[in-house]
Amino acid sequence: MSISDNTSLQLPKENPEAQDFLPLLGTDYVELYVGNAKQAAHYYMSAWGFQPLAYAGLETGLKDRVSYVLQQDKIRLVLTSPLKSGGEINKHINAHGDGVKAIALWVDDATKSYGETVKRGANSYFEPRLLRDEYGQVILSGIHTYGETVHVFVERKGYKGVFMPGYRPWKPYYSPKDVGLRYIDHMVGNVGWNEMNQWCKFYAEVMGFAQLVSFDDKDISTEYTALMSKVMSNGNGRIKFPINEPADGRKKSQIEEYIEFYNGAGVQHMALATDNIIQTVTSLRNRGVEFLTVPVSYYEDVLDRVGEIDEDLTPLRDLGILVDRDEEGYLLQIFTKPILDRPTMFIEIIQRKGAKSFGKGNFKALFEAIEREQESRGTL
Questions:
Q1: Is residue 15 a contact partner of residue 233, using CB atoms and an 8 Å limit?
Q2: For the stretch 305-319, what's the b/e string if a residue is b when 16 or more beta carbons lie within 10 angstroms of its beta carbon?
Q3: Partners of residue 231 on adjacent β-strands
Q4: CA angle 289, 180, 80 (to 5 degrees)
Q5: What whole-number distance in Å separates Cα of residue 371 and Cα of residue 116?
Q6: Mind listing the pLDDT tens digit for each residue in 73-124?
Q7: Which pLDDT score is estimated for 361?
Q8: Cβ–Cβ contacts within 10 Å for residue 166, how many?
Q9: pLDDT of residue 220
Q10: Could you give the CA distance from residue 28 to residue 351 in angstroms, rounded to a whole number?
Q11: Contacts 24+ apart (CB under 8 A), 140-146
Q12: φ, ψ for residue 362 (rounded to 5)?
């Protein structure tokens, strides 16, 4: 299934401050460089309900790498591992461990997207290239962003193949049921001290994004740690990138811990949307996914703070799901513990019931939960 099957090409402008010189139709895929793509694919299928879609490797003519493509509704993951020592992928894994290398953005014109961003100051990752097979053609181009993270522009007009040229369908016998994840709500980047404004300026000037909301160390702080964050969004609101940086605190913040173990800036977490967070989180927990927990006392006054909600509070409390409200409605969210050996990347599950914010009312409870995990690791 193509993302285009469920996404209209009409682009309503939900962030009027953003420019439209770089229209983005959605997130095409997220590529992670991992130590063992075969085993990682099994994990994301078994624990997270992703479905096998496509494969590229020795059998398709690749000599240096292997990639497995997984999909769940509009979310596509590409898991890539090296086949030989040395080279870019090995260096990335040695430095960072498993992590996001590319956030691929679906565009109508990959050549124009490359030209517009490079003209405005982006560093080229690779120039536009044409991939073709019997099912049509795909045009790709790429630019650098924070750390070693890149954006790949993907133009796939009329392409009828399984993913893109160079891949073949992957249909293993094992294909577990999905868990109700629908699309990427936002992706969060962690950058170093005093780098947040630099990268927000990059997204504004190079990619035409506008600031949706900002949080300072008064909004995101506990007794021990603090951080700063600004959320950048494109014009139609389909792409949202919060950018975090450390702030002064008594102890080492989660952002500092991330940068220490990731060896630099990178993607901290993906927020994956669902239409039924209780059902999704129950399924994930039953499959072994571990979530952060907050004290039961959080739920004693949550309804006084957020008002009436559709859900029964009991399963939310039992699962540790947080609730927050803004002027547009409310949201439900929960965060996993790090899903890798290094305390770097984690995943957020979010259900929006009208709210367009990011759970500001939950920040204190959330970051105290993260600090408890840091303390157990000896990194606070």
A1: yes
A2: ebeebebeeeebeeb
A3: 213, 242
A4: 65
A5: 42
A6: 999 999 999 999 999 999 999 999 999 999 999 999 999 999 999 999 999 9
A7: 63
A8: 16
A9: 54
A10: 21
A11: 140/110, 140/164, 141/110, 141/111, 141/113, 141/114, 142/102, 142/114, 143/114, 143/117, 143/118, 143/206, 145/103, 145/189, 145/199, 145/202, 146/189, 146/191, 146/195, 146/199, 146/202, 146/243, 146/265, 146/266
A12: -100, -5
Q: Which segments of the chain belong to CATH 3.10.180.10? A: 12-169, 181-377
Rounded to whole angstroms, the Cα distance separating 12 from 186 reads: 18
Using alpha carbons, list the distances in angstroms from residue 61 to 29, 130, 141, 377: 22, 17, 21, 43
Structure tokens at 118: 């490079």
Number of H helices, E strands in the chain: 9, 17
C-beta of residue 345 within 8 angstroms of C-beta of residue 338: yes
Residue 151 has pLDDT above 50, yes or no: yes
pLDDT tens, residue by residue, 23-50: 899 999 999 999 999 999 999 999 999 9
Residue 27 has which token pair? Answer: 């997130």
Nearest residue to 255 (alpha-carbon basis) of 172, 190, 204? 190
Q: Top-level CATH class of 181-377?
A: alpha beta
Fold classification of 12-169 is: 2,3-Dihydroxybiphenyl 1,2-Dioxygenase; domain 1 (3.10.180)
pTM across the whole model: 0.91
State the sign of the Cα–Cα–Cα–Cα dihedral 281, 286, 289, 291: positive
Cβ neighbours of 43 (radius 10 Å): 17
Q: Find, among 260, 248, 252, 172, the residue nearest to 217 by Cα.
A: 248
Task: Provide the residue type at 266 as one letter.
Answer: G
